Automatic annotation (TrEMBL):
Organism: Rubellimicrobium rubrum
Gene3D superfamilies: PAS domain (3.30.450.20)
Signal peptide: none
InterPro entries hit by this protein: PAS-like_dom_sf (IPR035965), PAS_4 (IPR013656)
Short name of one Pfam family: PAS_4
Organism placement in taxonomy: Bacteria, Pseudomonadati, Pseudomonadota, Alphaproteobacteria, Rhodobacterales
Domain of life: Bacteria
Name of the protein in question: PAS fold-4 domain-containing protein
Residue ranges annotated for the PAS fold-4 domain, each copy included: 63-155
SUPFAM superfamilies documented for this protein: PYP-like sensor domain (PAS domain) (SSF55785)
Length: 242
């Protein structure tokens, strides 16, 4: 199959990056021309180009970068110059923070990278959860690492709210369990203060009864021990009416 015929069948699709990938001058690249690439690499490149997700491939010890249309959108003015260049040279500062993760992936480990900004075209950016997947050649050695990014920024606030709600419900359940066997009001107050102090990580917890200008110190816990009632702790101001 000659180069023209192969271009009609691979890489698939008519998107920007499929065209750029084929038209790129690979003569000086360690990858060589696409028609000579291993079938395993061509297969994952086809998947990458067809994916609507942010996706890229780092190939060989040089980490030569290939990427799809969705990734190109994030690369800003580094696109299209990033295509075919070593990943460490394209984003030296950013790559330094993830180089050890790529090393693990090139050693054969599938790596999950927790949610973080991935938009390299500006400060901040969209938040992605990233997966690095080794791509093995016919001989079983890892010849590339396929990166796939899932945009999760929209779901993070909802997840944080859910965790907060679950923590609050767990505390209320623990408080109810602690108070259920108690019948004495003073014991209930003391136990409630203790549980609340543990929840808040507070070393001192106090409770009072307030009536107009007067109040009575009913109990206080300090560093896990009870403090005698009747005398307000130092620094507490008596409530006053207007």
């Amino acid at each position: 199959m000659d180069a023209r015929t192969q271009r009609e069948t691979w890489p698939p699709g008519s998107g920007e990056m499929a065209g750029r990938l084929w038209a790129h001058d690979w003569a000086a690249s360690p990858l060589g021309p696409p028609e000579a690439w291993p079938e395993e690499l061509k297969a994952v490149v086809s998947l990458m180009l067809a994916s609507p997700l942010v996706s890229s491939i780092a190939v060989g010890p040089e980490r030569v970068l290939l990427y799809n249309n969705a990734a190109a959108r994030l690369y800003g003015d580094r696109h299209p110059g990033a295509l075919g260049r070593p990943l460490p040279e394209t984003w030296p500062e950013a790559y330094a923070t993830v180089a050890h993760l790529y090393d693990r992936a090139f050693a054969g480990e599938a790596v999950r990278v927790p949610a973080q900004p991935l938009d390299v075209s500006r400060e901040g950016g969209e938040v992605f959860e990233v997966y690095l997947t080794p791509v093995q050649g016919e001989d079983g050695r890892v010849l590339a690492v396929h990166m796939t990014g899932f945009e999760v920024g929209a779901r993070l606030p909802a997840e944080a709210a859910l965790r907060e709600s679950e923590a609050r419900q767990a505390f209320l359940l623990r408080l109810a369990d602690a108070l259920r066997p108690l019948g004495d009001a003073v014991a209930i107050q003391a136990e409630a203060a203790r549980v609340l102090g543990e929840q808040l990580g507070a070393s001192r917890v106090a409770y009072y009864e307030v009536d107009g200008e007067s109040y009575v110190h009913r109990g206080r816990l300090q560093a896990g021990r009870a403090v005698p009632c009747g005398t307000p702790p130092r620094g507490v101001v008596r409530p006053r009416t207007a």
